[in-house]
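Fig. S4 source data, part A: sequence.
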Amino acid sequence: MTRPSARDVAFDTVRAVHADDAYANLLLPTLLGRAGLSSADSALATELAYGTLRRQGTYDAVIAAAADRPVDRIDPAVLDALRVGVHQLLSTRIASHAAVNETVELVRRVAGRPASGFANAVLRRVSRDTPGDWAARIEAAARSDDERLSLRMAHPVWVIRALRRALAAEGRADELDALLTADNAAPRVMMAALPGLADPPADHTPARYSPFGFLAGSGDPGPLVQSSGGRLRVQDEGSQLAALALTRARPATSGERWLDLCAGPGGKTAILAAEARAHGAVLEANEPVPARARLVRQAVAGVPGEIPVSEADGRERAASHPGVYDRILVDAPCTGLGALRRRPESRWRKTPADVPALTALQGELLSAAITALAPGGIVAYVTCSPHLAETAGVVADVLRTRDGDVEQLDARAVLRQVSRAPIDLATPIDGTGRAQLWPHRHGTDAMSITLLQRH
Protein backbone atom coordinates (compact mmCIF):
# COMPACT_ATOMS: atom_id res chain seq x y z
CA MET A 1 0.00 0.00 0.00
CA THR A 2 1.37 3.41 -1.00
CA ARG A 3 2.06 5.76 1.89
CA PRO A 4 -0.05 8.98 1.71
CA SER A 5 1.79 12.09 0.56
CA ALA A 6 1.57 15.54 2.11
CA ARG A 7 -0.91 16.52 -0.63
CA ASP A 8 -3.03 13.45 0.11
CA VAL A 9 -3.21 14.34 3.80
CA ALA A 10 -4.08 17.95 3.00
CA PHE A 11 -6.81 16.88 0.56
CA ASP A 12 -8.26 14.33 3.00
CA THR A 13 -8.43 17.05 5.67
CA VAL A 14 -10.13 19.58 3.39
CA ARG A 15 -12.53 16.91 2.10
CA ALA A 16 -13.50 15.81 5.62
CA VAL A 17 -14.10 19.41 6.67
CA HIS A 18 -16.62 19.89 3.86
CA ALA A 19 -18.13 16.39 3.68
CA ASP A 20 -18.25 15.48 7.36
CA ASP A 21 -18.13 18.84 9.20
CA ALA A 22 -14.76 17.81 10.64
CA TYR A 23 -12.54 20.29 12.46
CA ALA A 24 -9.17 20.65 10.77
CA ASN A 25 -7.26 21.37 13.98
CA LEU A 26 -8.55 18.09 15.48
CA LEU A 27 -8.42 15.86 12.40
CA LEU A 28 -5.12 16.87 10.84
CA PRO A 29 -2.86 15.68 13.70
CA THR A 30 -4.55 12.26 13.53
CA LEU A 31 -4.05 11.99 9.77
CA LEU A 32 -0.43 13.08 10.07
CA GLY A 33 0.19 10.42 12.69
CA ARG A 34 -1.30 7.70 10.51
CA ALA A 35 0.61 8.82 7.43
CA GLY A 36 4.00 8.70 9.15
CA LEU A 37 5.28 11.73 7.24
CA SER A 38 8.64 13.35 7.84
CA SER A 39 8.75 16.64 9.71
CA ALA A 40 9.14 18.54 6.44
CA ASP A 41 6.22 16.76 4.78
CA SER A 42 4.07 17.20 7.88
CA ALA A 43 4.76 20.92 7.75
CA LEU A 44 3.84 20.96 4.05
CA ALA A 45 0.60 19.07 4.65
CA THR A 46 -0.32 21.49 7.43
CA GLU A 47 0.38 24.52 5.26
CA LEU A 48 -1.61 23.10 2.33
CA ALA A 49 -4.61 22.14 4.47
CA TYR A 50 -4.77 25.26 6.62
CA GLY A 51 -3.86 27.64 3.81
CA THR A 52 -6.50 26.17 1.52
CA LEU A 53 -9.20 26.42 4.18
CA ARG A 54 -8.27 29.96 5.22
CA ARG A 55 -8.43 31.36 1.69
CA GLN A 56 -11.28 29.19 0.43
CA GLY A 57 -13.50 32.12 -0.59
CA THR A 58 -10.73 33.70 -2.64
CA TYR A 59 -9.78 30.42 -4.32
CA ASP A 60 -13.41 29.67 -5.16
CA ALA A 61 -13.62 32.97 -7.03
CA VAL A 62 -10.46 32.09 -8.97
CA ILE A 63 -11.72 28.57 -9.76
CA ALA A 64 -15.09 29.88 -10.92
CA ALA A 65 -13.40 32.32 -13.27
CA ALA A 66 -10.94 29.73 -14.61
CA ALA A 67 -13.60 27.04 -15.02
CA ASP A 68 -16.18 29.49 -16.38
CA ARG A 69 -18.83 28.04 -14.10
CA PRO A 70 -19.99 28.55 -10.48
CA VAL A 71 -18.22 26.33 -7.99
CA ASP A 72 -21.51 24.77 -6.89
CA ARG A 73 -21.64 23.11 -10.32
CA ILE A 74 -18.30 21.34 -9.74
CA ASP A 75 -18.19 17.91 -8.10
CA PRO A 76 -17.40 18.53 -4.40
CA ALA A 77 -14.39 16.20 -4.28
CA VAL A 78 -12.98 17.69 -7.47
CA LEU A 79 -13.56 21.19 -6.11
CA ASP A 80 -11.64 20.41 -2.91
CA ALA A 81 -8.73 19.04 -4.94
CA LEU A 82 -8.77 22.17 -7.09
CA ARG A 83 -8.72 24.35 -3.98
CA VAL A 84 -5.59 22.57 -2.74
CA GLY A 85 -4.03 22.89 -6.21
CA VAL A 86 -4.83 26.58 -6.54
CA HIS A 87 -3.36 27.25 -3.11
CA GLN A 88 -0.10 25.70 -4.31
CA LEU A 89 -0.13 27.78 -7.50
CA LEU A 90 -1.00 31.14 -5.95
CA SER A 91 0.33 31.06 -2.39
CA THR A 92 3.36 28.76 -2.22
CA ARG A 93 6.73 28.36 -3.89
CA ILE A 94 5.87 24.91 -5.21
CA ALA A 95 6.74 24.62 -8.90
CA SER A 96 3.68 25.11 -11.11
CA HIS A 97 4.20 21.90 -13.08
CA ALA A 98 4.40 19.86 -9.85
CA ALA A 99 1.28 21.51 -8.40
CA VAL A 100 -0.69 20.88 -11.60
CA ASN A 101 0.50 17.33 -12.24
CA GLU A 102 0.09 16.10 -8.66
CA THR A 103 -3.38 17.65 -8.34
CA VAL A 104 -4.54 16.20 -11.66
CA GLU A 105 -3.35 12.76 -10.56
CA LEU A 106 -5.20 13.21 -7.26
CA VAL A 107 -8.41 14.07 -9.12
CA ARG A 108 -7.95 11.01 -11.37
CA ARG A 109 -7.79 8.78 -8.28
CA VAL A 110 -10.79 10.27 -6.50
CA ALA A 111 -13.09 11.14 -9.43
CA GLY A 112 -11.89 9.37 -12.59
CA ARG A 113 -10.14 10.27 -15.83
CA PRO A 114 -12.77 12.66 -17.32
CA ALA A 115 -12.69 14.77 -14.15
CA SER A 116 -8.89 14.82 -14.26
CA GLY A 117 -9.03 16.35 -17.73
CA PHE A 118 -11.29 19.10 -16.44
CA ALA A 119 -8.97 19.70 -13.48
CA ASN A 120 -5.96 19.86 -15.80
CA ALA A 121 -7.61 22.53 -17.93
CA VAL A 122 -8.62 24.65 -14.93
CA LEU A 123 -5.24 24.46 -13.21
CA ARG A 124 -3.27 25.20 -16.37
CA ARG A 125 -5.43 28.26 -16.93
CA VAL A 126 -4.75 29.40 -13.36
CA SER A 127 -1.02 28.77 -13.75
CA ARG A 128 -0.74 31.01 -16.82
CA ASP A 129 -1.28 34.19 -14.77
CA THR A 130 0.42 35.56 -11.67
CA PRO A 131 -1.22 35.76 -8.24
CA GLY A 132 -1.41 39.54 -8.68
CA ASP A 133 -3.21 39.13 -12.02
CA TRP A 134 -5.77 36.82 -10.47
CA ALA A 135 -6.29 39.12 -7.49
CA ALA A 136 -6.94 42.06 -9.82
CA ARG A 137 -9.32 40.00 -11.96
CA ILE A 138 -11.55 38.72 -9.18
CA GLU A 139 -11.53 42.02 -7.28
CA ALA A 140 -12.60 43.88 -10.42
CA ALA A 141 -15.82 41.83 -10.36
CA ALA A 142 -16.63 42.80 -6.76
CA ARG A 143 -19.87 44.69 -6.21
CA SER A 144 -18.71 46.74 -3.19
CA ASP A 145 -15.60 47.79 -1.32
CA ASP A 146 -16.34 45.25 1.40
CA GLU A 147 -16.74 42.46 -1.16
CA ARG A 148 -13.44 43.50 -2.71
CA LEU A 149 -11.80 43.39 0.73
CA SER A 150 -13.45 40.00 1.33
CA LEU A 151 -11.84 38.56 -1.80
CA ARG A 152 -8.45 40.08 -1.02
CA MET A 153 -8.35 39.06 2.65
CA ALA A 154 -10.42 35.84 2.48
CA HIS A 155 -13.04 36.75 5.09
CA PRO A 156 -16.81 36.70 4.46
CA VAL A 157 -18.29 40.17 4.12
CA TRP A 158 -20.43 39.81 7.23
CA VAL A 159 -17.36 38.87 9.29
CA ILE A 160 -15.43 41.88 7.99
CA ARG A 161 -18.27 44.18 8.99
CA ALA A 162 -18.60 42.61 12.45
CA LEU A 163 -14.86 42.96 13.08
CA ARG A 164 -14.85 46.56 11.85
CA ARG A 165 -17.67 47.44 14.26
CA ALA A 166 -15.86 45.73 17.14
CA LEU A 167 -12.68 47.71 16.45
CA ALA A 168 -14.67 50.92 16.02
CA ALA A 169 -16.17 50.34 19.48
CA GLU A 170 -12.61 50.93 20.75
CA GLY A 171 -12.00 53.84 18.40
CA ARG A 172 -9.59 51.70 16.35
CA ALA A 173 -11.37 50.89 13.12
CA ASP A 174 -8.15 51.75 11.28
CA GLU A 175 -6.66 48.46 12.54
CA LEU A 176 -8.98 46.31 10.40
CA ASP A 177 -6.41 45.42 7.74
CA ALA A 178 -3.91 44.43 10.41
CA LEU A 179 -6.52 42.21 12.09
CA LEU A 180 -7.50 40.47 8.85
CA THR A 181 -3.84 39.90 8.03
CA ALA A 182 -3.25 38.38 11.46
CA ASP A 183 -6.25 36.07 10.99
CA ASN A 184 -4.59 34.68 7.87
CA ALA A 185 -1.22 34.01 9.51
CA ALA A 186 -0.35 30.70 11.12
CA PRO A 187 -0.27 31.27 14.90
CA ARG A 188 2.68 30.38 17.06
CA VAL A 189 2.09 27.38 19.32
CA MET A 190 1.65 28.70 22.83
CA MET A 191 1.78 26.52 25.94
CA ALA A 192 0.93 26.90 29.60
CA ALA A 193 2.60 25.52 32.72
CA LEU A 194 -0.16 24.94 35.27
CA PRO A 195 0.57 27.38 38.12
CA GLY A 196 1.98 25.77 41.22
CA LEU A 197 2.31 22.40 39.48
CA ALA A 198 4.88 22.90 36.73
CA ASP A 199 7.41 25.40 35.45
CA PRO A 200 8.09 26.30 31.82
CA PRO A 201 11.19 24.57 30.41
CA ALA A 202 14.29 26.69 30.92
CA ASP A 203 15.13 26.76 27.22
CA HIS A 204 11.74 28.07 26.05
CA THR A 205 10.73 31.67 25.36
CA PRO A 206 8.22 33.06 27.87
CA ALA A 207 4.88 34.43 26.70
CA ARG A 208 4.51 38.17 26.33
CA TYR A 209 1.76 38.53 28.94
CA SER A 210 0.76 35.30 30.69
CA PRO A 211 2.92 34.71 33.78
CA PHE A 212 3.00 30.96 33.12
CA GLY A 213 2.80 30.86 29.32
CA PHE A 214 5.66 29.99 26.97
CA LEU A 215 6.26 29.38 23.29
CA ALA A 216 6.52 25.78 22.17
CA GLY A 217 9.76 24.81 20.49
CA SER A 218 9.96 23.43 16.98
CA GLY A 219 8.35 20.07 16.36
CA ASP A 220 5.44 18.28 17.96
CA PRO A 221 4.68 19.49 21.53
CA GLY A 222 2.86 16.21 22.25
CA PRO A 223 5.79 14.43 23.93
CA LEU A 224 6.35 17.42 26.24
CA VAL A 225 2.67 17.39 27.23
CA GLN A 226 2.67 13.66 27.86
CA SER A 227 5.91 13.60 29.84
CA SER A 228 4.56 16.33 32.14
CA GLY A 229 1.37 14.42 32.90
CA GLY A 230 -0.67 17.22 31.36
CA ARG A 231 0.79 19.91 33.59
CA LEU A 232 2.40 21.48 30.54
CA ARG A 233 -0.26 21.97 27.88
CA VAL A 234 -0.94 23.66 24.57
CA GLN A 235 -3.15 26.69 25.20
CA ASP A 236 -3.61 30.08 23.56
CA GLU A 237 -2.29 32.93 25.68
CA GLY A 238 -5.66 34.68 25.51
CA SER A 239 -7.32 31.64 27.05
CA GLN A 240 -4.77 31.69 29.86
CA LEU A 241 -5.44 35.36 30.56
CA ALA A 242 -9.20 34.85 30.53
CA ALA A 243 -8.95 32.23 33.28
CA LEU A 244 -6.59 34.44 35.30
CA ALA A 245 -8.98 37.38 35.04
CA LEU A 246 -11.43 35.41 37.15
CA THR A 247 -9.03 33.82 39.64
CA ARG A 248 -7.14 37.04 40.30
CA ALA A 249 -9.94 39.61 40.13
CA ARG A 250 -9.51 39.78 43.90
CA PRO A 251 -7.45 37.72 46.37
CA ALA A 252 -8.85 34.20 46.74
CA THR A 253 -9.52 32.71 50.17
CA SER A 254 -9.63 29.14 51.41
CA GLY A 255 -13.02 27.50 51.18
CA GLU A 256 -14.31 29.46 48.20
CA ARG A 257 -16.50 27.52 45.74
CA TRP A 258 -15.81 27.95 42.06
CA LEU A 259 -17.72 26.74 38.99
CA ASP A 260 -16.69 26.44 35.35
CA LEU A 261 -20.13 26.40 33.78
CA CYS A 262 -19.27 25.69 30.12
CA ALA A 263 -16.03 23.82 30.65
CA GLY A 264 -15.33 21.91 27.42
CA PRO A 265 -12.75 21.18 26.19
CA GLY A 266 -11.11 21.97 29.54
CA GLY A 267 -8.12 24.23 28.96
CA LYS A 268 -9.39 27.03 31.18
CA THR A 269 -10.72 24.45 33.65
CA ALA A 270 -7.20 23.12 34.16
CA ILE A 271 -5.91 26.58 35.05
CA LEU A 272 -8.86 27.19 37.38
CA ALA A 273 -8.16 23.83 39.03
CA ALA A 274 -4.49 24.65 39.60
CA GLU A 275 -5.35 28.10 40.96
CA ALA A 276 -8.09 26.70 43.20
CA ARG A 277 -5.67 24.14 44.60
CA ALA A 278 -3.13 26.87 45.39
CA HIS A 279 -5.69 28.90 47.36
CA GLY A 280 -7.70 26.16 49.04
CA ALA A 281 -10.77 26.74 46.88
CA VAL A 282 -13.07 24.01 45.60
CA LEU A 283 -13.71 23.80 41.85
CA GLU A 284 -16.61 22.15 40.07
CA ALA A 285 -17.03 21.91 36.30
CA ASN A 286 -19.96 21.41 33.99
CA GLU A 287 -20.07 20.49 30.31
CA PRO A 288 -23.33 19.32 28.71
CA VAL A 289 -21.78 17.48 25.74
CA PRO A 290 -20.51 14.06 26.90
CA ALA A 291 -17.56 13.93 24.48
CA ARG A 292 -16.39 17.36 25.59
CA ALA A 293 -16.96 16.44 29.24
CA ARG A 294 -14.52 13.56 28.74
CA LEU A 295 -11.99 16.09 27.42
CA VAL A 296 -12.50 18.19 30.56
CA ARG A 297 -11.77 15.19 32.78
CA GLN A 298 -8.62 14.51 30.77
CA ALA A 299 -7.56 18.17 31.01
CA VAL A 300 -7.75 18.24 34.82
CA ALA A 301 -6.21 14.80 35.34
CA GLY A 302 -2.81 16.37 36.06
CA VAL A 303 -4.19 18.41 38.98
CA PRO A 304 -4.21 16.55 42.33
CA GLY A 305 -7.59 16.08 43.94
CA GLU A 306 -11.05 15.35 42.65
CA ILE A 307 -12.77 17.84 40.34
CA PRO A 308 -16.36 16.75 39.67
CA VAL A 309 -17.57 17.27 36.11
CA SER A 310 -21.34 17.31 35.62
CA GLU A 311 -23.03 17.01 32.23
CA ALA A 312 -26.10 19.20 32.65
CA ASP A 313 -27.50 22.09 30.67
CA GLY A 314 -25.52 25.05 32.00
CA ARG A 315 -28.64 27.13 32.53
CA GLU A 316 -30.24 24.42 34.66
CA ARG A 317 -26.99 23.63 36.46
CA ALA A 318 -26.55 27.23 37.60
CA ALA A 319 -30.21 27.91 38.34
CA SER A 320 -30.38 24.87 40.62
CA HIS A 321 -27.62 26.29 42.87
CA PRO A 322 -28.71 29.86 43.71
CA GLY A 323 -26.36 31.96 45.82
CA VAL A 324 -23.72 29.22 46.10
CA TYR A 325 -20.56 30.10 44.17
CA ASP A 326 -17.89 32.70 44.81
CA ARG A 327 -16.50 32.62 41.25
CA ILE A 328 -18.07 31.35 38.03
CA LEU A 329 -16.57 31.17 34.58
CA VAL A 330 -19.04 31.39 31.70
CA ASP A 331 -16.94 30.58 28.65
CA ALA A 332 -20.00 30.73 26.45
CA PRO A 333 -20.61 29.00 23.10
CA CYS A 334 -20.07 31.62 20.41
CA THR A 335 -19.38 32.23 16.72
CA GLY A 336 -15.66 31.68 17.27
CA LEU A 337 -14.72 34.72 15.20
CA GLY A 338 -11.82 35.32 17.57
CA ALA A 339 -10.09 32.03 16.71
CA LEU A 340 -9.92 32.24 12.92
CA ARG A 341 -6.15 31.75 12.97
CA ARG A 342 -6.41 28.33 14.60
CA ARG A 343 -9.74 27.20 13.10
CA PRO A 344 -9.37 28.24 9.48
CA GLU A 345 -12.63 26.71 8.24
CA SER A 346 -14.82 28.40 10.85
CA ARG A 347 -15.07 31.69 8.98
CA TRP A 348 -16.91 29.91 6.15
CA ARG A 349 -19.19 27.86 8.41
CA LYS A 350 -20.94 30.54 10.40
CA THR A 351 -23.48 33.00 8.99
CA PRO A 352 -25.22 36.07 10.44
CA ALA A 353 -28.26 33.85 10.98
CA ASP A 354 -26.34 31.95 13.67
CA VAL A 355 -25.87 35.02 15.87
CA PRO A 356 -29.38 35.53 17.35
CA ALA A 357 -29.66 31.98 18.72
CA LEU A 358 -26.16 32.20 20.17
CA THR A 359 -26.75 35.55 21.87
CA ALA A 360 -29.99 34.27 23.37
CA LEU A 361 -28.16 31.24 24.82
CA GLN A 362 -25.28 33.41 26.03
CA GLY A 363 -27.66 35.75 27.83
CA GLU A 364 -29.48 32.86 29.50
CA LEU A 365 -26.20 31.30 30.66
CA LEU A 366 -24.94 34.59 32.07
CA SER A 367 -28.23 35.33 33.84
CA ALA A 368 -28.27 31.87 35.40
CA ALA A 369 -24.65 32.25 36.49
CA ILE A 370 -25.39 35.54 38.25
CA THR A 371 -28.22 33.82 40.11
CA ALA A 372 -25.77 31.14 41.26
CA LEU A 373 -23.34 33.72 42.69
CA ALA A 374 -23.02 34.15 46.44
CA PRO A 375 -23.12 37.76 47.69
CA GLY A 376 -19.89 39.40 46.53
CA GLY A 377 -19.30 36.62 44.02
CA ILE A 378 -17.76 37.29 40.60
CA VAL A 379 -18.64 35.88 37.19
CA ALA A 380 -16.29 36.10 34.22
CA TYR A 381 -18.24 36.17 30.97
CA VAL A 382 -15.86 35.14 28.20
CA THR A 383 -16.30 34.63 24.47
CA CYS A 384 -13.76 33.71 21.81
CA SER A 385 -15.44 36.30 19.62
CA PRO A 386 -15.27 40.09 19.48
CA HIS A 387 -18.71 40.36 17.85
CA LEU A 388 -20.45 43.17 19.73
CA ALA A 389 -23.79 41.35 19.85
CA GLU A 390 -22.09 38.47 21.68
CA THR A 391 -20.02 40.61 24.02
CA ALA A 392 -21.16 44.09 25.00
CA GLY A 393 -24.69 43.45 23.75
CA VAL A 394 -25.27 40.32 25.84
CA VAL A 395 -23.89 41.94 28.99
CA ALA A 396 -25.97 45.10 28.52
CA ASP A 397 -29.14 43.08 27.94
CA VAL A 398 -28.56 40.96 31.06
CA LEU A 399 -27.79 43.96 33.26
CA ARG A 400 -31.02 45.61 32.15
CA THR A 401 -32.95 42.67 33.63
CA ARG A 402 -31.29 43.02 37.05
CA ASP A 403 -32.44 45.28 39.86
CA GLY A 404 -29.08 46.93 40.40
CA ASP A 405 -27.58 43.99 42.31
CA VAL A 406 -24.69 43.54 39.85
CA GLU A 407 -21.81 45.85 38.96
CA GLN A 408 -19.22 45.57 36.21
CA LEU A 409 -15.59 45.42 37.33
CA ASP A 410 -12.60 46.73 35.40
CA ALA A 411 -11.34 43.62 33.60
CA ARG A 412 -8.62 45.64 31.88
CA ALA A 413 -7.16 46.66 35.22
CA VAL A 414 -7.11 43.03 36.36
CA LEU A 415 -5.31 41.92 33.21
CA ARG A 416 -2.77 44.71 33.57
CA GLN A 417 -2.03 43.49 37.10
CA VAL A 418 -1.49 39.86 36.10
CA SER A 419 0.37 40.55 32.85
CA ARG A 420 4.13 40.12 32.90
CA ALA A 421 4.53 43.14 30.55
CA PRO A 422 2.55 46.29 29.71
CA ILE A 423 -0.50 45.34 27.67
CA ASP A 424 -2.39 47.65 25.31
CA LEU A 425 -6.07 47.27 26.23
CA ALA A 426 -8.26 49.92 24.64
CA THR A 427 -11.09 51.49 26.62
CA PRO A 428 -14.43 50.83 24.91
CA ILE A 429 -16.32 53.90 23.78
CA ASP A 430 -19.23 52.78 25.96
CA GLY A 431 -16.99 53.21 29.02
CA THR A 432 -17.52 49.70 30.40
CA GLY A 433 -14.84 47.57 32.04
CA ARG A 434 -14.76 44.93 29.31
CA ALA A 435 -11.34 43.79 28.06
CA GLN A 436 -10.84 42.77 24.44
CA LEU A 437 -7.76 40.89 23.24
CA TRP A 438 -6.78 40.82 19.55
CA PRO A 439 -4.60 38.65 17.29
CA HIS A 440 -2.92 41.62 15.59
CA ARG A 441 -2.34 43.58 18.78
CA HIS A 442 -1.59 40.89 21.35
CA GLY A 443 -0.83 37.75 19.34
CA THR A 444 -3.75 35.96 21.05
CA ASP A 445 -7.20 34.84 20.03
CA ALA A 446 -9.72 37.69 20.13
CA MET A 447 -11.05 36.92 23.61
CA SER A 448 -13.65 39.20 25.19
CA ILE A 449 -13.57 39.24 28.99
CA THR A 450 -16.21 40.86 31.21
CA LEU A 451 -16.19 40.65 35.02
CA LEU A 452 -19.46 41.12 36.95
CA GLN A 453 -19.77 41.18 40.73
CA ARG A 454 -22.95 40.55 42.68
CA HIS A 455 -23.50 42.97 45.56
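Fig. S4 source data, part B ends here. Residues 355-372 form the longest helix (18 residues).
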